[in-house]
Design goal:
Elements: H1 3-15, H2 25-43, E1 62-65, E2 70-72, E3 75-77, E4 80-83, E5 86-88, E6 91-93, E7 97-99, E8 102-104, E9 107-109, E10 112-115, E11 118-120, E12 123-137, E13 140-152, E14 155-163, E15 168-170
């Protein structure tokens, strides 16, 4: 049975439409109109609409500096950084920085998270700066700050700061 015949049979069985003389001309005209619409839709190219909009950020790789690694010099990166080792020089990152090692130099990043680390130098986060159980000798600059550490330096925060009770700050 062809597609057209199958369609006609379905119309007849489901809606009671048929092209025979049994139905009224109104029923027959409706059946023909539905058939024509189906033919046109079949011949027209299908326009595909996306199911959802893709607003995701592109994947950003993470460069990891392991505990047993020592770097002397400036680090510049567009990737995320995870620094577990020692860096003697500045860290310039366009994305997120995680530090659990030792840094002697300035740190610049988008979101900077420092945990169980020692940093001797200024730290600048264009968005959020989080420091936990660390020792910082330098000034802090951030959009927002969460601090639970020892800091010897000035703090400059634009939006808001959460400084926990166990923190120690010497400076402005």
């Amino acid at each position: 049975m062809g597609t057209k015949q199958n369609f006609n049979q379905a119309l007849h069985e489901v809606f009671g439409f048929s092209r025979s003389t049994k139905g009224t001309s109104k029923d027959s005209n409706l059946a023909e109109k539905l058939e024509n619409d189906m033919e046109q839709q079949k011949d027209a190219p299908a326009e595909r609409q996306p199911i959802y909009e893709n607003n995701t950020q592109p994947f950003i790789e993470t460069a990891r500096i392991t505990k047993d690694t020592k770097i002397i010099g400036t680090i510049e990166s567009k990737s995320n950084l995870d620094i577990c080792g020692d860096v003697f020089g500045d860290v310039e990152c366009q994305n997120n920085v995680k530090i659990s090692g030792r840094i002697e130099g300035n740190v610049n990043g988008k979101n900077v998270e420092i945990t169980s680390a020692v940093v001797k130098g200024n730290i600048r986060a264009s968005e959020k700066l989080t420091i936990r159980q660390s020792e910082i000798l330098g000034n802090l600059f951030a959009e927002s700050l969460e601090l639970n550490s020892k800091v010897n330096g000035n703090i400059n925060v634009k939006k808001g700061a959460v400084i926990l009770k166990a923190s120690s700050v010497v400076g402005d």
